[in-house]
Amino acid sequence: MTVPVEIRDAGLRFGERTLWSGLDLDVAPGEFLAVLGPNGSGKTSLLRVLLGLQELSSGTVRLAGGAPGVANSRVGYIPQQRAMDEGLTMRGTDLVGFGLDGHRWGTGLRGLARRRKRVAEAVAWVGAESYAGAPVGRLSGGEQQRLRVAQALVGEPEVLLCDEPLLSLDPAHQRAVSELIDARRREAGTAVLFVTHEINPILSYVDRVLYLVNGQFRIGTPDEVMSSETLSQLYDSRVEVINVGGQIHVAGAQSALCEDEPHHIGETV
Ligand SMILES: Nc1ncnc2c1ncn2[C@@H]1O[C@H](COP(=O)(O)OP(=O)(O)OP(=O)(O)O)[C@@H](O)[C@H]1O
To answer: Which CATH architecture has domain 5-226?
Structure first.
């Protein structure tokens, strides 16, 4: 069995600062891995390494299709939801089509038809048929984000990298987008790495958590990692984790880091 993501003794440093080191992690086909941690802990940098946009300081990463990077392996990427310029006239189907690398589809009319069919399937898969023909600038944030999911999945990736894809979506759209990602990994065995500040909207899908803090990390099931004991060790300060009605609330983590931004304590979805 091919392991979609294999990370060995990986470290990333910027100047004097070590974001993480000694990271060993295999992500299995169909596994849903949440990557958590406070601002600046190196979550996005990990995705950038896997996308081939950032070199490691030490160690190796290997993706199912070969070396890291979108161009030479089957990797899909869903960025944070950001409102697109209202004047953007590109249609939703064009946006989704950017997720296909040109040469796999051949040239000429037959290639074009195959490409169009694949885009239509991806659009249907995220339920965006009714608005995929419209200029993306006129769509709602939730609609735009569904199209970004289709764009990430249209190439049938073995690995799906998500960088806070639920940010600034309302709870209904958060649920819709999370369900789509969960369905895909179940149906197609896509390995998911999902960077987030807020685990609750995806808690029921998460198999394992990678939690990064201040150069340290823990990997394990949500129960193992999201505990008062583990997070207190990681933050080197008293952190309380309370599980209420299936939602996890973390108290004390931000004060441990003297940060302004609260983490994890969010709305109930
Ligand atoms: N190319 C770079 N050169 C120097 N420092 C960098 C570079 N890229 C990232 N950093 C620094 O590394 C740290 C981690 O950044 P990263 O974006 O990975 O954090 P994050 O955990 O995703 O944070 P957030 O939750 O705020 O998005 C930050 O302090 C950032 O300024």
So the answer is: 3-Layer(aba) Sandwich (3.40)
What confidence category does residue 72 fall into, taking pLDDT thresholds of 50, 70 and 90? very low
Give the dihedral of Cα atoms 193, 50, 216, 20; nearest 10 deg.
Answer: -170
Ligand 1 lined by 98 (C-beta under 6 Å): no
Q: For ligand 1, is residue 263 a contact (CB within 6 Å)?
A: no
In this structure, what token pair is assigned to residue 175?
A: 């649920």
Q: Is the CB of 178 under 6 A from ligand 1?
A: no
- Find out whether the beta carbon of 196 lies less than 6 Å from any atom of ligand 1: no
List of E strands, the chain = 5-14, 17-27, 32-36, 58-63, 75-78, 159-163, 191-195, 208-213, 216-220, 240-244, 247-251
Q: Which atom of ligand 1 is nearest to the CA of 42?
A: 18
What would the pLDDT profile of 96-124 be if each residue is shown by its tens digit?
A: 999 886 556 566 677 788 889 999 999 99
Cβ–Cβ under 8 Å, residues 182 and 174: no
Q: Whose CA is nearest to atom 3 of ligand 1?
A: 14
Distance 157 CA to ligand 1 centre (A): 26
41-61 pLDDT, tens digit each? 999 999 999 999 999 999 999
221 lines ligand 1 (CB under 6 A): no
The confidence band for 266, taking pLDDT boundaries of 50, 70 and 90, is very low
- How far apart CA 157 and CA 117 sit, in angstroms, is 17
Q: Where are the domains of the chain?
A: 5-226, 227-268
The yes/no answer to whether this complex scores an ipTM above 0.90 is: yes
